TrEMBL record:
Record InterPro entries: FUN14 (IPR007014)
Topology class, membrane: Multi-pass membrane protein
GO biological process: autophagy of mitochondrion
Family affiliation: Belongs to the FUN14 family.
Annotated stretches, region: Disordered: 1-23
A Gene Ontology cellular-component term: mitochondrial outer membrane
Record key words, sorted: Membrane, Transmembrane, Transmembrane helix
Highest classification ranks of the organism: Eukaryota, Metazoa, Ecdysozoa, Arthropoda, Hexapoda
Localization per record: Mitochondrion outer membrane
Source organism: Acyrthosiphon pisum
Protein name, per record: ACYPI007484 protein
Domain of life: Eukaryota
Length: 148
């Protein structure tokens, strides 16, 4: 038998962080969502209402589950820090911590204020052009929050 001329290269997946571009993925997801909303906006009122209700319920359900998990995690962390502080394992400088948190909060607020206006304009545009779907989404969202 003659040796094969083709040599296969083994692919173990991404080798660097450059292979996965988060911004590109976010843009693709954004364009996909916009396409879906445009396509649903062209469907009948019943389909718009069903799609809006289903997506609203899923969003509300997921947000409540994530909110509960985040609240539990943050609360447990604060409780653990306070127990460790009162037991003498660590010494927390609460004044310095408070100043640091306030500084970070100001930076976050400053960087997101422009983005909030753009997001509000997009949401208003979607609601104005797809009012039936938006009404279904709102009702579904509240049902998802209530039944999570």
């Amino acid at each position: 038998m003659a040796p094969s001329a083709a040599v296969s290269k083994r692919d173990d997946g991404p080798s660097t962080s450059d292979d996965f571009d988060l911004e590109k993925t976010a843009e693709e997801a954004k364009s996909l969502i916009e396409k879906i909303v445009r396509d649903v906006g062209k469907k009948s009122a019943t389909r718009q209402l069903i799609f809006g209700s289903a997506s609203g319920w899923a969003t509300g359900f997921i947000m409540m589950k994530l909110g509960k998990a985040a609240a539990f995690t943050v609360g447990s962390g604060i409780l653990a820090l306070q127990l460790a502080n009162s037991s003498g394992y660590i010494n927390i400088n609460w004044d310095k911590l408070t100043r640091g948190v306030e500084r970070v909060a100001e930076q976050v607020e400053g960087s997101t204020s422009d983005k909030k206006q753009g997001l509000l304009k997009k949401v208003r545009n979607i609601v104005e052009t797809n009012s039936i779907m938006a009404a279904g989404f709102t009702g579904g969202f509240f049902l998802g929050v209530a039944y999570s």
